[in-house]
């Protein structure tokens, strides 16, 4: 007993810092600003719990007078949204898996192997950083159309899978791994692939996770490309379906907010649990742009 | 035995090209393997980046429509038309105006939020969550939320602040509404970059300054700000490139229209209208190429600035 108490004590007394006046002011300021940031999401949540009539009432009020789950129930009944949710999951998971695999291989290839035309290709990858569906939308669409992939899963997925940025990030990371580790294995007779899978991949797990997390967020939230390439409501992803189908015949605000929360909350909930990893992932991918 | 010892040391020496024979063997091996490592990416990159770019350049020289049949080569006519297209210049102006408003605001706001979150000793995870959460929402969801907040009569924004501003229906406020929405929605990303950078500033700098009698303001101005110069450049560049590509939130907030008196029609939106509504794929491709040149110019300008600065510090 006494030994455990002795050991616990310094742990407990360590972090509590005093409430200095400046800390009180800063904390109050933090609470006020946080309230501003959370307010629109909270408002959406409250509105989704109003009846449609109340959601369109003038003047508006924050809290529902009559709490009802009608919007959420109606959403489930029309059925589209479950489809969209599954589509979003399928597309984002496949995009993430392909991007992480392809970008890791290419990043390693560029960082550690020699081949003809490497410099030229690397230059092309750098130029690719500037190209997105927003920039090249129409020609990209006609290309995909030519391949017969309009209104297909692959048409949505594959064009999201050539991310020059992710290759560049991993390329920079792999350059930082000490060559000696690989050379030792090389001398022991391991081939490039074995070195890659048994030494490089385990060493770069945090970077790969960062790229994966960032890709998943971007893909889950991607609107423009799925919007361009799908017209079939059965194939739409969450952001796309909500924006086009739910906005098309007379907006029902309560349902729209409920749908929006269904699209947005999963990532926020995941964020609450994996905050450290996600923050590291976003900061890492962003900072790599330096 | 001695040979194996030499091969261990060898890698350091091969760079000075002592044994050309082993070097070529290595290179050949490397060629095969390297080629395969980058092959999957290059295949995707060629199909969905390089080919569309080349195709865009080709299409921009034709009068192609959406079906792709019967395109005639018309030389630079599309570009000539674009130069005289008032609507295109207006759309470009809207995207540029949006960028000029958003970039400075977001940079300052992200810095202030990061300073706040960094200096409050309690509940760091909570501030991070609150400031970053909007970034996790899809663009269309964030757009819909603010469209509803800004709608006259039923919107809570005016109600809460006691205003009667016609945010979405008056041309002098519409873009401002989109800017406010964008600040709320995307500041979290730059905030995280600043926060990471703040945490990377070594404590001993501050302690030394404290010993020298510098107060909190002086420490911020003379240590924090200079240490963050690099990250500020990054935030501005990323934000500028993203803002120029304005599309999602604008069309959602304006019901997929061009806004009051066309005042929020962005360059991307106008391009897509030409391609998918007017079916003028050739003309839309010309605008895509123009846009690519603009984006590339911004990115290259940043790279040039970075290089200059690095040389300046040396």
Outline of this structure?
By secondary structure, chain A is mainly alpha-helical.
Task: Give an overview of the whole structure.
The complex is a heterodimer of chains A (290) and B (314). Chain A is an all-alpha fold. Chain A has a single domain, classed as Orthogonal Bundle (MetI-like fold). Helices cover 73% and strands 0% of the residues of chain A. Chain A has 16 helices and no strands. Chain A has helices at residues 2-13, 21-48, 52-55, 70-78, 80-112, 118-128, 133-146, 153-157, 164-175, 179-187, 192-203, 205-221, 224-229, 238-244, 253-273, 275-287. In chain A, helix 2 crosses helix 15 (253-273), helix 4 (70-78) packs across helix 15 and helix 12 packs across helix 16 (275-287). Chain B has 2 domains: 2-59, no CATH class; 86-313, MetI-like (MetI-like fold). The relative contact order of chain B is 0.12. Mean pLDDT of chain B is 85; it is low at 1-21. The chains are: A mainly alpha (290), B mainly alpha (314). Chains A and B meet through helix 2, helix 5, helix 6, helix 7 and helix 10 of A and helix 1, helix 2, helix 4, helix 5 and helix 6 of B.
């Amino acid at each position: 007993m006494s030994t455990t108490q002795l050991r616990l004590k310094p742990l407990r007394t360590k972090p509590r810092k005093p409430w200095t006046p400046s800390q009180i002011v800063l904390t109050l300021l933090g609470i006020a600003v946080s309230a501003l940031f959370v307010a629109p999401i909270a408002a959406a949540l409250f509105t989704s719990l109003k009846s449609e009539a109340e959601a369109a009432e003038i003047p508006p009020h924050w809290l529902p007078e009559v709490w009802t789950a009608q919007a959420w129930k109606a959403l489930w009944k029309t059925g589209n949204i479950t489809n969209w949710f599954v589509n979003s999951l399928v597309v984002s998971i496949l995009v993430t898996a392909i991007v992480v695999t392809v970008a890791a291989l290419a990043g390693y290839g560029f960082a550690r192997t020699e081949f003809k035309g490497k410099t030229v290709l690397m230059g092309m990858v750098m130029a690719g950083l500037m190209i997105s569906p927003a920039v090249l939308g129409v020609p990209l669409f006609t290309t995909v159309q030519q391949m017969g992939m309009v209104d297909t899963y692959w048409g949505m997925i594959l064009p999201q899978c050539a991310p020059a940025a992710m290759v560049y990030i991993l390329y920079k990371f792999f350059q930082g791994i000490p060559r000696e580790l690989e050379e030792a294995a090389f001398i022991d007779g391991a081939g490039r692939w074995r070195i890659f899978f048994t030494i490089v991949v385990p060493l770069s797990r945090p970077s790969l996770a960062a790229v994966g997390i960032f890709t998943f967020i971007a893909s889950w939230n991607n609107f423009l490309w799925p919007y361009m390439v799908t017209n079939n409501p059965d194939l739409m992803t969450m952001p796309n379906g909500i924006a086009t189908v739910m906005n098309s015949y007379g907006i029902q605000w309560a349902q729209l907010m409920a749908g929006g929360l269904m699209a947005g909350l999963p990532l926020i909930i995941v964020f609450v649990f994996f905050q450290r990893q996600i923050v590291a992932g976003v900061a890492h991918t962003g900072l790599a742009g330096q | 035995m001695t040979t194996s010892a030499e091969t261990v040391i060898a890698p350091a020496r091969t760079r000075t090209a002592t044994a050309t024979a082993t070097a070529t063997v290595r290179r050949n091996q490397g060629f095969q393997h390297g080629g395969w490592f980058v092959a999957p990416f290059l295949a995707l990159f060629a199909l969905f980046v390089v080919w569309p770019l080349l195709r865009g350049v080709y299409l921009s020289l034709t009068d192609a429509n959406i079906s792709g049949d019967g395109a005639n080569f018309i030389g630079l006519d599309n570009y000539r038309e674009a130069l005289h297209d008032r609507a295109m210049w207006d759309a470009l102006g809207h995207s540029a105006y949006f960028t000029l408003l958003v970039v400075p605001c977001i940079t300052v706001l992200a810095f202030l939020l990061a300073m706040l979150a960094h200096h409050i000793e309690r509940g760091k995870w909570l501030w991070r969550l609150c400031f970053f959460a909007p970034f996790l929402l899809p663009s269309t969801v964030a757009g819909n939320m603010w469209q509803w907040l800004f709608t006259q009569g039923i919107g809570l924004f005016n109600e809460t602040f006691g205003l009667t501003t016609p945010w979405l229906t008056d041309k002098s406020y519409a873009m401002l509404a989109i800017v406010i929405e964008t600040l709320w929605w995307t500041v979290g990303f730059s905030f995280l970059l600043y926060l990471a950078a703040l945490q990377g500033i070594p404590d001993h700098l501050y302690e030394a300054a404290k010993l020298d009698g510098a107060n909190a303001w002086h420490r911020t101005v003379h240590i924090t700000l200079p240490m963050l110069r690099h990250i500020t450049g990054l935030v501005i560049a990323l934000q500028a490139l993203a803002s120029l590509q304005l599309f999602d939130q604008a069309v959602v907030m304006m019901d997929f229209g061009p806004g009051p008196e066309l005042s929020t029609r962005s360059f991307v939106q106008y391009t897509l209208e030409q391609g998918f509504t007017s079916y003028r794929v050739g003309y839309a491709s010309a605008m895509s190429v123009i846009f690519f040149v603009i984006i590339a110019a911004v990115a290259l300008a940043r790279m040039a600035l970075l290089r200059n600065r690095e040389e300046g510090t040396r």
